[in-house]
Design goal:
The complex is a heterodimer of chains A (372) and B (342). Chain A folds into two domains: 44 residues, no CATH class; 225 residues, Orthogonal Bundle (MetI-like fold), CATH 1.10.3720.10. Helix content of chain A is 67%, strand content 0%. Chain A has 14 helices and no strands. Classes of the chains: A mainly alpha (372), B alpha/beta (342).
Chain lengths: 372, 342
């Protein structure tokens, strides 16, 4: 046996060649994703043409031929956007008619909130739930005193002077913080075995969900005062806030109910088998799971609520959008509707996108691998 | 501009009936004096009549009426708080006592004056529906508009007046309807209609919103009566008198040549008995109104006479540049005429 005949066997693999030029880098990516077939190529070309038609004129309008400084619409040449309008009214867009000398109070409330929320984002901080609940009770009082004043030497600023983005955030904030707990209670009530409670919750939810928000606001602002004795006047903002909270609570209740129904029966039975009572089994076993499932639905409702705040313009409250619109009726700025609305849209988008991203972050953080 | 669906009318009537028993007599002036300010209902935004400036202050003709009343009552035109009201809320707000006076470009009509439980004090602006056309059409009269495409808001008295006018003059038109002014303005600008019709004051402000305002002209014909003025609750004569005579004082001041600048000087030096009565140096007009003798002086000092108010807010001193027209004094070819203050 010729055992010593050398066999030509590679002991190590050859260097692998890079993929062909047409398959890698930018070209490869383009080929794979944009020009992989005739149909896709046509679609890509159409999309490019559309972008070319749309984007440059918009950029041109918004930036290149836009006017950025000036005192009234006469300083704009009409070729592009007239941003001095937004510039001159920025303070009003943010604070409404809040007295200029007192605007720091709104800023202070925001700073206090951000600082107070820091511990919630520290991983090492324990008892987050207790802290958050405490914050939910304490902060509204702090904010209320800061905004309304009349105490601790702060001058009184009546709610009719609140406005702009500040008012939008107040309405959305109150709506969001009251609607979630209220919604949870309503959802539990709707699934209760006690007929009276279930009846009340079903009637409330179906009644409120069955009417448009604009009707609720309109009733609260136009009809309610007629049924009250002369001289008894609830604050217009308060009426709107109550309307908003109840309205969004009804929607929230149905979102939460969806979560409750998605929890397998075994979980309920396991909780019962452990000897937990109703509140404990709900609070420790069912709700944490149910709420986690419906985070997208909850945030969806929040985002809807945030944008619905602009409906208060029909009852003459100057929320952000209405403040922008009011600016358009100033003879100095007439006819700049597009600039105003584009700015408003951008601001709304920033807030809604932030909420959306936060909800995704929350979903990832709370993910326990049960996702299907 | 004013919505006239039956629903709105019905609701308004209901409100009137409901509120009918809620009127309280003679209490507003005392209540106002006690709380220290006038609560004034204004529009949420109408160029020249009530809008906010860059500093967040309310300005406009309707706003100045309230300032004048506040000045007449308190001697200080800043003692007034404004409640911006939508057109649907306005009557309820007045009836329920949320506002003391409604100065919100509201047309004085029989139904409002009676069934709604309001009393209009004066006409502060004689408005009426007009037409605007591009200059290049070379139209000089509304009578030449036969066959025109007319941009109009649907469901308003404006639309009804329009068809009445064209039918009355044996002309045809094609209505082009849009829900709001901004849309109409764009359509008009792009030539989708030849004519834009709404209240004349609105035409001027919309013209201002056009990229090239000078290319458009408002025709001289006014086809409807829209007398705008402040309103108070029915059955409170004392307060109604204050509102009525404050505005009359502003008009009289213009007649007599009293302005915000020379009012102090005239008060000291004028021998004209009419001026003296107006400015409280002769007779006791203030007392009859349960106000200070200086009531008119303060009102004029705060906002100026009617002419000043007009020119500053909607006239030549403002971007709107509306002509006085009907709103000129009766001595100058208008119909503005205040009963004598004596």
């Amino acid at each position: 046996m010729a055992t010593n005949i050398p066999h030509y066997v590679r002991s190590q693999s050859t260097e692998s060649l890079p993929p062909p030029v047409a398959e890698r880098g930018v070209v490869g990516w383009l080929k794979r994703n944009l020009f992989s077939s005739i149909g896709n190529t046509i679609l890509t070309l159409i999309a490019l043409w559309l972008l070319w038609e749309i984007v440059p004129p918009i950029l041109n309008w918004a930036f290149f031929s836009a006017t950025f400084t000036g005192t009234d619409r006469a300083s704009c040449d009409g070729a592009g956007a007239c941003w001095p309008f937004v510039n001159a009214r920025f303070g009003q867009f943010v604070y409404g008619f809040y007295p200029v000398s007192q605007r720091w109070r709104v800023d202070a409330a925001v700073v206090v909130l951000l600082l107070a929320m820091v511990p919630l984002f520290l991983p090492r901080f324990e008892r987050k739930l207790a802290y958050a609940l405490g914050l939910l009770v304490v902060y509204p009082i702090v904010a209320y005193v800061l905004f309304l004043g009349g105490k601790f030497g702060l001058s009184h600023v009546e709610t009719s002077r609140w406005g702009g983005l500040f008012l939008t955030l107040v309405i959305a904030g109150v709506g969001i913080t009251t609607s979630l707990p209220l919604g949870v209670v309503l959802a539990l009530g709707r699934r209760s075995t006690m007929p009276a409670i279930r009846m009340v919750c079903v009637v409330f939810i179906e009644l409120v969900r069955g009417v448009p928000l604009i009707t609720v606001l309109f009733m609260a602002s136009v009809m309610l005062p007629l049924f009250l004795p002369e001289g008894v006047n609830f604050d217009k903002l308060l009426r709107a806030l109550v309307g908003f909270s109840l309205f969004s609570a009804a929607y929230m209740a149905e979102v939460v109910r969806g979560g409750l129904q998605a929890i397998p029966k075994g979980q309920y039975e396991a909780a019962a088998a452990l000897g937990l009572g109703y509140w404990k089994s709900m609070g420790l076993i069912i709700l944490p799971q149910a709420l986690k499932i419906v985070i997208p639905g909850i945030v969806n409702t929040f985002i809807g609520l945030f944008k619905d705040t602009s409906l208060v313009l029909i009852i003459g409250l100057f929320d952000f959008l209405n403040t922008v619109q009011a600016g358009l009726s100033d003879p100095n700025w007439i006819g700049l509707a597009i600039e105003g609305y584009v700015f408003a849209a951008a601001v709304y988008w920033v807030f809604c996108f932030a909420m959306s991203r936060y909800s995704q972050h929350l979903e990832r953080k709370l993910d326990t691998g049960h996702k299907r | 501009m004013r919505l006239t669906p039956t629903v709105a009318g019905g609701a308004a009537l209901c409100i009137g009936l409901l509120a009918g028993n809620a009127a309280f007599a003679g209490a507003t002036l005392d209540a106002v004096k006690k709380k220290g300010f006038v609560q004034c209902g204004v529009s949420t935004g109408l160029p020249g009549f009530s809008s906010t400036n860059d500093k967040g202050e309310w300005t406009g003709l309707d706003v100045d009426v309230c300032r004048a009343i506040a000045a007449a009552v308190f001697g200080d035109g800043s003692k007034v708080k404004f409640t911006p009201l939508t057109s649907k809320e306005r009557f309820t707000a007045l009836q329920s006592g949320e506002v003391d006076i409604l100065s919100r470009n509201t047309t004085w009509s029989l139904q409002r004056d009676t069934a709604l439980g309001l009393n209009f004090t004066n006409v502060t602006y004689y408005d009426g529906q007009g037409f605007m056309v591009p200059k290049k059409l070379e139209v000089t009269s509304a009578k030449e508009l036969d066959g025109a495409a007319v941009c109009v808001q649907p469901g308003t008295t404006t639309e009804l007046n329009l068809s009445d006018y064209f039918r009355g003059n044996g002309m045809k038109f094609t209505p082009v309807v849009f829900e709001n002014d901004d849309e109409i303005r764009v359509a008009f600008e792009q030539g989708r209609c030849d004519v834009f019709t709404t209240d004349a004051s609105g035409l001027y402000s919309n013209r201002l919103g056009m990229p090239t305002p000078d290319d458009y002209v408002v025709l001289p014909e006014i086809i409807s009566k829209e007398p705008l003025g402040p309103a108070v609750r029915q059955g409170d004569d004392e307060w109604e008198n204050v509102g009525r005579w404050t505005v009359n004082a502003l008009i009289t001041a213009e007649e007599l040549g009293v302005t915000s600048e020379n009012v102090e000087e005239m008060k000291g030096s004028s021998d004209n008995p009419n001026v003296k009565r107006l400015l409280g140096t002769e007779d006791t007009m203030g007392e009859y109104l349960k106000l200070d003798a200086d009531w008119a002086v303060n009102a004029i000092k705060a906002v100026g006479n009617y002419g000043e108010v007009f020119e500053r807010n909607v006239g030549q001193g403002s971007p709107l540049k509306i002509e006085r027209g009907l709103n000129a004094l009766w001595t100058n070819g208008g119909i503005l005429y205040a009963p004598p203050i004596r």
